[in-house]
Input
Amino acid sequence: MRARMRNFLYILLGLFFLIGFSNFQNQRNDYFMFKSKYRLGNYYHLETKMLTEEIFANANNLTLIDSVYLLPLNLVDTTKIDKEWGVGRLCDYDCRLISFIENKKYDCVVTISFTSTAGDGEPIILVNTYDKVGKFISHAKFELVFQHDYSPVPEQYLSIDKKNKISMELTSKNYEIVDSLGVEILKYINTDYYNEYYSINHDGLILKLNE
Output
């Protein structure tokens, strides 16, 4: 009885090993195919401070990433659930490549994708890192900010420097409507600043910085 149980456990372990190895091979193959297809499709280059509004305006000119890669490589954020305005099909996330950055121990992939079917599509920028065999390591997510009606006027900039520091800097100018000789005009009040900083360590892990 014990011998049978032992053999059964050996078979189970073997199956788990084969399944795990097969999944690893599939993931590796998916990533190598993705890399060979998109690694030269850069729109953004290191050390450039880029206005996110320009990235959004030029999104249709960026390289469209095939939907078969989106979920296996974590290239879109599917955590937002909205029955009315949510994205219903994988291809509707419309994920575009901003940059593919290669390092000695990891690769960094920067994309813009859309998370809603309403309004401007509520786009996000994802900065993802992978090891050299395609294993996902970590990501930083940034929501793009736009002006709506009389909301603050934003200027949002993305940059990644050669020291692997990621910056997303947001400046919002606030105004109020005032009466000037019977005419409504916008009067400047103040400016708000909201900045996010991350660093990518030597192993490709993205860490948030407190600055």
